[in-house]
Every structure is written in structure tokens, then in C-alpha cells.
Amino acid sequence: MEQAPSPAPQNNSRFLLILALALVLLGINGVLYWMNRQKSAENEQLTTQVQEKDAKLEEQIKQYETLKADFERQSQEVQAMGLSNDSLESKIASINADLLKLRSFKAGSFSIKEQQRFKQRAISFEAQLRKKDEEIAQLKADNEALYTETTTLKDRQNRLTDTITTIARSNQELSEKVAVASRLQAENIRVGVLNSRDKEKDDADNEFKAKRVEKVKISFNLARNDVSPKETKQIMLRLIEPDGSALYNLSTGGGTFMVDGSEAFYTAKQDIVFDNTRQPVQFLYAKGAAYKTGQHTVELYEGGVMIGKTTFTLK
Fold it and tell me: Which positions, given as ranges, span the membrane (predicted)?
């Protein structure tokens, strides 16, 4: 009787197959492990970046809250001195708007670009804050000096009651001098004309052809005057024709005003806020009818006092 073949080769193949599968699974597990490590590292990096952005955001919010508190302090100090604090209120409003924007950022959304933008704005606010602190300190010093000076003057006044009449007379004279010194002056008065197509023409000799004139343009600057208060001024224009009569029409803005105690006609008027910057002023007048030939006179008034005069000729 023959003996059965040995199963050893088949068992070896099965073992090798199992071993190969085990190695493949081990490799797959290794790859998965490595990918998980990479993913964990990426997640940790993203978490760190988000935390850094959130930290920057919190730091920026605290900086803006500090700026707001400082500007509010300045506003109270300026208001306590009886001065306008409109510019400070405007800055506080801007900071509140920035704070609202900063607090609207979601976690991790505070980008580097936004960080730089808000940082630059904060730097600008801090510079303005320092400058305003210097101004307030100077104002306080000036007020203190003024208070001391006022107190000294009051003491002197109490001791020198016998000179009140003389002082009053001197003050009156000084007021009159100040009134004269505070009068405005029109400088660089220029005359130009516009035709029916609004094409402007000017001439160094102030001579123009009457038939081509539709509008007369008067331009000038208000000269610097450190005495005159910065306030609204009413400028009157008198455009006087060759026969000596002033052009006057209610429908084009004309009217009457007082000059040296007498009523006079004006051609046009304009309200301007004098700011002592040699600001430009311009009148543009359309007669609505043919202009007379001959020499015309331009007179400018403020407060019933002539502040400038020139002539031009229509041929």
C-alpha cells in the first residue's frame, strides 16, 4: 500500500500568504498612523494660529478701549475749560466704530492684513492723543497764567480806584483802535467777465467789450488780520455804473445797507466765515440786461466800512 503525499508545501504557502497579508496590514497601519500624526500636527498648528490671532484681536481691542478712555478723559477736560470738544467726540465715534468692527471678528478670522490696518490706525490715534495732551497742558498753563494775571489786575484795580476814569478813557481809546485794526481788507481784487457761453475773459488793464459781457466776476482775498475775530462776516458788493448809480435788483440779491449813517444800495451780498487764512471770495453777477459803456466801479464793504475798491472799463 502506497503512502499519502506530505502536505508540507501547501502549509508553507499558506503561512507565507498570511505573513504577506500581515506585512501589508502592518504597512497600511503605519501609513495611517503617519497620516494621523501629520493631521494632528496640522490641527495643532491651525489651533496655534487661531489662538495667536485671537490673542492679537484681544490685545487690539484692549488697546482701542484704552484709547477710547483717554479720548473721553480729554473730552471732559476740554469741556471743563469751556471749550468745544467736537473734534474729540468725532475721534471717540471713530474708535467706537473700530471697536464694533473688532468685536465682530469670529475666532481665527483676524487676518494679518486687518491686524496691520488696525495697528496703523491705533498708532495714528495715539499720536493724536499725545498731541492733544500737549495742547490741553498748554491750555491749562495759559489759563492758570491768565487767572494769576486777572487776579493781579483786580488787586491793582482795588488799589488804584482813583485812576478808574483815566483807565476807562484809555480802554475806550483802545477799543476804538481795536475796532479800526479789526476791519477786514480785500486784497488782490480781480475783475473778469463771462460771455453768454460762460467763457471767461480777464484783462490786466480791466478793459472789456460791453456787448460780450453776460456776467461780471469779482474775485479777491481777505487779508490776514489777527485782531478780527473768526466769525461770520457779511460782505457787500456795490457795482457802480459810469453814471454813478449802483446796480440794484431785489430778484438778483440786491438790497440796502447803512454806510456812514446813510442808506446805500448794494448789488449783492455774501456771508462768509472769516478764518484768517487769506481765504478767497468770489462774486458772480448777471445784470440780465445790456451793460453801459464806460468806467465801472467795484466797492466792497464789511460792517458798513469799505474794505476794497477797483474799477474796470466796458467799451
Answer: 15-35
Largest alpha-carbon pair distance within the chain?
163
Segment 246-263, tens digit of pLDDT:
999 988 889 999 998 899
Helix, strand, coil percentages for the chain (3-state, nearest 5): 55, 25, 25
Residue 216's Cβ-count burial label (10 Å; 0-12, 13-18, 19+) is buried
Which has the closest alpha carbon to 302: 235, 245, 250, 216? 235
pLDDT tens-digit series, residues 29-82: 777 777 777 766 565 555 555 567 778 888 888 988 888 888 888 888 888 888
- Distance, CA of 79 to CA of 86 (rounded, Å): 10
End-to-end Cα separation, the chain, in angstroms: 152
- Strands 215-222 and 186-194: what pairing? antiparallel
